[in-house]
Amino acid sequence: MKLIGSLTSPYVRKVRVVMAEKKLDYALILDNVWAPETTIQQSNPLGKIPCLLMEDGGAMFDSRVIVEYLDTLTPVGKLIPPHGRERAEVKSWEALADGILDAAVLVRLERTMRDQAIQSEAWVNRQMDKVNAGLKAMSQGLGESAFCVSNHLTLADISVACCLGWLAFRFPAIAWREEYPNLAKLADKLAERPSFKETLPE
Questions:
Q1: Coiled-coil annotation: which residues (predicted)?
Q2: What pLDDT, on a 0 to 100 scale, did the predictor assign at position 58?
Q3: Which pLDDT belongs to residue 167?
């Protein structure tokens, strides 16, 4: 398999961490989707990463779709429960983490891709409200538990840690570590895993 992505995307990192935890072999193909020479639309008509290229020539996109597929390829380190409420809880954590990222990415694009004179502070504030509300919900949901769902690593924890890692990388002014020490504790614990050490954004 081949994974088209970048070294900074949190969505790509989520897929890479899952692949590492599942011990799956793949080749990483770097592509800057904002560059004129990008070829991403040959594989994903939406022009977004990550995009997984299968051995039979097929392509799969959207990180949530990709990680769900990857979890079925081997019983090693199952990350998504097969059914029921626990499965829904894991997927809800993933949706929350991705939602925070979606809002923060929009803020970054507003700040970096639009002329300052036409940037919308109301738009930025609306998105940052989502980020802050999402972080608060994450902290409340985690509480004093060692993991987001159950008593072992799941996709929920991977999603949360990738989200927090990207915020630390791109939005260092957001003081989530100080405000939510339980999230910092989870992030620090997962940062010791090889799958996270090997996929740090750069």
A1: none
A2: 92
A3: 98
Residue with tokens 């930025």: 124
Other Cβ atoms less than 10 A from the Cβ of 60: the count is 17
The pTM (predicted TM-score) of the whole model is: 0.96
> In the CATH hierarchy, which top-level class contains the domain 2-71?
alpha beta
Fold of 84-193: Glutathione S-transferase Yfyf (Class Pi); Chain A, domain 2 (1.20.1050)
Query: What is the 3-state secondary structure of the chain?
Result: CEEEECCCCHHHHHHHHHHHHCCCCCEEEECCCCCCCCCHHHCCCCCCCCEEECCCCCEEECHHHHHHHHHCCCCCCCCCCCCHHHHHHHHHHHHHHHHHHHHHHHHHHHHHHCCHHHCCHHHHHHHHHHHHHHHHHHHHHHCCCCCCCCCCCCHHHHHHHHHHHHHHHHCCCCCHHHHCHHHHHHHHHHHCCHHHHCCCCC
Per-domain residue ranges of the chain: 2-71, 84-193
